[in-house]
C-alpha cells in the first residue's frame, strides 16, 4: 500500500506544480484561401493574404483554456486557468488521478478523448486501481479505492505521444516563422539601440555587445516573449540567474557580471517553454536532458553557469582521439590526416543531421563501438585499429544516426556542435544553449 500511496502522492504533487505549465496545442486551420477559379468573376477576387504569424504562447494558452466538461460529470472547468481546481475535483469527487499530468501536451484534448472512451466501459477497464487506507479528505478508512489514468495503458501512452507530436509541430511552425520573419523590431535590453531585422540578429547583438548569450536562435522559440520576460526581470532589478533583488541597476549589472549570472537558470521551469529541447521528448526538461549527458569530458560538478562563458574559448575535441583544436577547420585538417580522410567539412547534410552525426559518433566512440558497423571492442585502441583497417573512418549510414536521441549532445560542453554550419546557407547555427 505504501507504494501506491507514494505513487498517488507523486501524482498529487505533480498536480501542485502545474501552475506554470504551458500547454500548447492548436488546430492547424490556417487563413482562408481566396476565392477564384470556378466562381469566375461572380465573387470579388482578393490578393493572396499575407500568411498569419503562427500563434504565440499566450494565444496557444488561450486556445487551450476553454471550458471542458469533467471526465466523469457535467461540471465544466477551464483546462488551464482552472486546472488545479479540476484536478482536485477529480480526486475528491471521483477518486481519479491523472498521472504525470504536467506532461500532457494538451489537457483539453486529453480530457475530451478519455471522456468519450469512458462511456464505453467501467473505469477499471482504463485505469489502474489503487487501494489506500484513507478517504479523499484524509480520514482513516481501510481499503479505499482510487483510480489512476496513466501511460501504463498503451492507449493512454499513444494519446500522450500524439498530443506531444502535434504540439511539437505547432512549435516548429512558430520557430520557422521566427527564423524567417524580418520585421522584428524592439529596443535592446541593455542599450538604446533599436534591434531590427531577424530575431537571430537581435540575439547576436545581445551576445556581441552585451556578452549576454541565450544560445543561438535555432534552440529557441517564442523569442519575443522570452526577451520580454527578461526585460521585466531586469526592470524589477532581479538577477536572471539567482533571482536576488538589487536596489539599483548598477549593482545588479555588476553582480550579474561578476558572478557570471548573465544567463538563464535552468531551474526556472517557467523558462522551459522557450527552449525547443523541451518539446522533443515527453516529460524531459532541458536540465534533465543535460544531466543525462555524462561522459569523460563533462565533469559532474560543471554547473550551468558555465554556459554563459565565452564558448569560443572551449577547444574542439576530435571525434576519434584526444586531439584538440581551436577552430573547426584545424580540427578537420587533423582528422583528415590522422583519421584516414574523415572530415566534417562539406558533408552535404542538414545542420540537424550534422549535429546528430557528431553526437552519434561521440557516443559510439565513447562505447568503443564502430560508428559504421557497430562492432564493439574492449578498448579504444582496438577500435582505432578496426576503424583504420576496415576503412570505417567514414560517415555512417544516415539511418544509424538520424534518430531523435542524437539531437542531444553526448558531451554537454561539446564545442564542435556550436561550430557546425548549415550546408545550405552557411549560417552558423547552434545546438545547446551553452
Ligand atoms: Zn466531475
Ligand atoms: Zn544593446
Ligand atoms: Zn545572481
Ligand atoms: Zn583525432
Ligand atoms: Zn566498423
UniProtKB/TrEMBL annotation:
GO terms for molecular function: zinc ion binding. Keywords: Metal-binding, Zinc, Zinc-finger. InterPro entries: ZN622/Rei1/Reh1_Znf-C2H2, ZNF277, Znf_C2H2_sf, Znf_C2H2_type. Coiled coil: none annotated. The lineage of its organism: Eukaryota, Metazoa, Ecdysozoa, Arthropoda, Hexapoda. It holds the Pfam family zf-C2H2_2. This is C2H2-type domain-containing protein. SMART domains: ZnF_C2H2. Belongs to the ZNF277 family.
